[in-house]
Each structure stands twice: as C-alpha cells, then as structure tokens.
Amino acid sequence: MYLKKLTLFNFKNYEEANLDFSEKLNCFTGSNGAGKTNLLDAIHYLSFTKSYFNLIDSQNIKHDAEFFAIHGQFVRNGSGPDDVSCIQKRNVKKQLKINTKEYDRLADHIGLFPLVMVSPYDRDLINEGSDLRRKYIDSVISQFDRNYLEDLIVYNKALAQRNALLKQFGERRYFDEASLDIWDEQMKSPAARIYAIRKEFLDGFLPVFNKYFEFISQGKEKVDILYHSDLSGSDMEQLLKDNLQRDLSSRYTTTGVHKDDLELLIDGFPVKKFGSQGQQKS
C-alpha cells in the first residue's frame, strides 16, 4: 500500500498544493519554514483523522481562510484506489470521507491506512509523562486491532463519567455507591482486555526492539522495556474497591489501565534518569 496523490487547500502554510508520489521512496526538501513537516502532518490526518502536532483542528486552517481540505489517494494491494478526504470548517464538525462516503465515527477509519510517524519529539516518550507512552502504544495497537480500539473508547468514556461523578461527590458532599457501580462495571472488562493485549504486544515487540537496538549500538548496550500496570497483580474490580477512599479524596480515579506506564532501561538503568542525549535518541 502507498499514498499516490496528496492535495491540500488552506492547510497550515499551504494555500494549495498537489503532489504525486512514488510507490517506493519519497523525500521532501526545502528551506526551514517551507512546510515539509506540514506535508507529513497532512498525511497523518489521512491515517489518524487528526494532526500529530496540534489537536485543535481549527488552528490548522490557514490564516484568514474559512476551512482546510486534505485529499489523498491510497493504492492498496489487490484493490482499486481509495480516496480519503478530511475537511475542517471553522466552528463546524470535522468531516472525514472515504470514496465520498462520510464516516459516522472517526474511529472506524483507524487502521485502514497504517502509518508510523518518526519525529524529533519522540524523545518526549522518554522524558515526559506516562500519558505519552500510553498514547504511543495505543496508537500502534489500534491500527491492527479494531477490538482494542473499541475497548479503549468504552473504557475512557466510562472513566470520564466516573471521574465526573467523583468530583460531584466531593463538591456536593454526598456519596452514591450504586451510581459509581454502574461505571465500575463498564470499566472492568475492557480494562482486563486492554492490559492483556498491551502485555502480549510488548512481549512480541521486545525481541524485535532488542534486535535493532543491538545493530545500532553494535552490541555494546542492552535495552529492556518494563511494563508497569496496576492490573499485573489484581483485577480492575478489586482495584476500584481497594482504592475507593483514595478516589473519593482525590476526586478522580487513581488506579487502572489509564495509569499504565513503560520504563525504558539501558544496561538495567532507567534511560530517563541515566541515559545520555545520544542514548535517548537511539
């Protein structure tokens, strides 16, 4: 599969652009600020329905324009071309279409055109918070496992409702266990599946990761990835019960797969604390 054509209107610094791509290797060259990265971000929109760099869609509309439009034509093995369009107007819901048919849910598009984005900001995966590392692994798995993506959506919606309820309990100084149980019930099964799939993915990914890092470092360093999850020693239902008082005090859910983290090690030491800039980039 490859992207054959890309057309932009009023996207970031582009008023209009039309590009044709090779099915092999393509390179963008140009001066700083010419818009090379913006082209990559437009391609990211066609795969993930959103920007890699700025999640506020309206801010990606060219200044003084009323909308942006991104059109791409993908060629997949064994099938005809697929035309994907993403259109964002100011103060209007974003539209995403495939072969002129609009999606009811943007999530249904994820995984149809897999993409891996490599960026200088990838160092943030080491130095920033656990939410970036979860987001990264979720974006990879969601591209090939639609059920995993559905579990994430269900879990995060229930989590948001549970947190809103916990905040309400604290502000109004009351507690309704039955209301909380509704969201606890909706979270436990997706949480178990999310944990299991993340663990399975990392078990398969680690040997590949080690293989390529060994090539880069010429075998001088050993790397490892540790998966930390509250569910490694308990199930979601029990975790929520055991941490109820802490949740009530904090006014949000303090345990669950939304707190999972990845720890990257070199020769047994955390890269975040002891790795050089060169090691972190590797």
Structure in words:
This protein is of the alpha+beta class and 282 residues long. It folds into two domains: 2-109, P-loop containing nucleotide triphosphate hydrolases (Rossmann fold, 3-Layer(aba) Sandwich), CATH 3.40.50.300; 122-281, Up-down Bundle (Glutathione S-transferase Yfyf (Class Pi), Chain A, domain 2), CATH 1.20.1050.90. The protein contains nine helices and nine strands. It has helices spanning 36-48, 124-127, 130-142, 146-172, 177-217, 236-242, 244-250, 271-274, 277-281; strands at residues 2-11, 14-20, 67-75, 81-89, 95-98, 101-102, 223-228, 261-266, 269-270. The strands form two sheets. The protein has a six-stranded antiparallel β-sheet with strand order 2-1-3-4-5-6, with helices on one face. A three-stranded antiparallel β-sheet has the order 7-8-9. Helix 4 (146-172) packs across helix 5 and helix 4 (146-172) packs across helix 7 (244-250). The protein is globular. The chain starts with a strand and ends with a helix. The mean pLDDT is 93.
Please write out the topology:
Layout: E1 2-11, E2 14-20, H1 36-48, E3 67-75, E4 81-89, E5 95-98, E6 101-102, H2 124-127, H3 130-142, H4 146-172, H5 177-217, E7 223-228, H6 236-242, H7 244-250, E8 261-266, E9 269-270, H8 271-274, H9 277-281
Antiparallel strand pairs: 1-2, 1-3, 3-4, 4-5, 5-6, 7-8, 8-9
